[in-house]
Design brief:
alpha/beta, elongated, single chain, 14 helices, 326 residues, 3-stranded mixed beta sheet
């Protein structure tokens, strides 16, 4: 991609300046990796501390989102929810005693690439893409998997929903921030893949955690159960990479008192998105809704800031004594 005279982008040439909006735990390291790779990045975040951290890592910052977007070839967003994204795209209307403000779509030059890496509802992703295209821009949804560790290491997985030409245009940029970039289909398909993947992850982490607590009750050591299940039909990422007990996988959060790589609050959010999708499509799911309820409770009862694998402590704490024991 290259800059057009108006600041937009064209396929097939190097990318122009990037406006990066949302410099939190995920967005900040992603922006740093782009700068290290030689991209011109101007960042913005509503949290002053995030702006300070960004500047300390060599990222230029703007006073407003509109200032960051002005002249950008790509507007990359990493925002908390679909409502935040849609409000940012549209702007806010005049209200009682408060002037409205233009949205990002109005502030951007024609033909700008709007690349959203937030995790939001599929319908919201499709609506955001439609708004961008209607405003004369291009749109890609590319939610990520890999957590803060992956964001810092540049090893994220990107699940991309886009027209083929737009996917190829942003692929080099995504490959700077991640080790795997998958084109999942048209607009919204990236979000669909992310939601389905994380529903599998949430369910499997609960299953693995329940199995370890059961193993404890039956007298199995953690290592013995891991050695069997990791080489048998119970093998899965929740076991072999993010093992919920300390010891068998030294790099798992369980060895750091469940300091989050992927926080319980984020898993609860993603499972709520999956629940919304299940309900809107009429899928006869049972485990997905149950996992959503379990993680909602976990987050509300103190697990929001812990790694989602900390669900094992909740299962253990709520387990009853074996029959015949006081």
């Amino acid at each position: 991609m290259s800059e057009t005279p108006t600041g937009g982008v064209q396929p097939g040439a190097p990318i122009g300046p990037i406006a990066f909006l949302g410099l939190g735990h995920m967005g900040g390291p992603m922006a740093v990796n782009l700068v290290k790779a030689g991209y011109t990045v101007t960042g913005y975040d509503v949290v002053p501390a995030a702006l300070e951290t960004a500047r300390a890592h060599g990222i230029a910052t703007a006073d407003t989102a509109a200032d960051a977007v002005a002249g950008a070839a790509v507007v990359l967003t990493m925002l908390p929810s679909g409502k935040h994204l849609l409000d940012a795209y549209r702007g806010t209307p005049d209200g009682p005693g408060q002037p409205g403000k233009d949205g990002l779509l109005a502030a951007a030059a024609p033909g700008t690439m709007f690349l959203d890496c937030s995790t939001i509802n599929v319908d919201e992703a499709r609506e955001a893409s439609a708004l961008a295209v209607e405003a004369g821009h291009r749109a890609v949804d590319a939610p990520v998997s890999g957590g803060v560790v992956g964001a810092e290491a540049g090893t994220l997985t990107f699940m991309v929903g886009a027209d083929p030409a737009d996917f190829e245009a942003v692929r080099p940029m995504l490959e700077v921030m991640g080790k795997r970039v998958v084109h999942c289909g048209a607009h919204g398909a990236g979000q669909a893949a992310k939601i389905c993947n994380n529903m599998i992850l949430g369910i499997s982490m609960i299953a693995v955690s329940e199995a370890f607590v059961l193993g404890e009750k039956l007298g199995l050591t953690h290592q013995a159960l891991f050695d069997v299940a990791s080489a048998a039909s119970g093998q899965c990422w929740a076991l072999t990479t993010n093992c919920p007990v300390p010891g068998p996988v030294p790099t798992s959060p369980a060895n750091r008192d469940y300091q989050p790589g992927f926080a319980g609050a984020l898993m609860a959010k993603d499972l709520k998105l999956a629940l919304n999708a299940l309900e809107s499509t009429g899928v006869a799911a049972r485990l997905g809704p149950m996992a959503s309820e379990i993680y909602d409770t976990f987050a509300a009862e103190g697990g929001a800031g812990r790694d989602f694998s900390g669900i094992i402590t909740d299962i253990r704490d709520k387990s009853v004594q074996p029959r015949g024991q006081a």
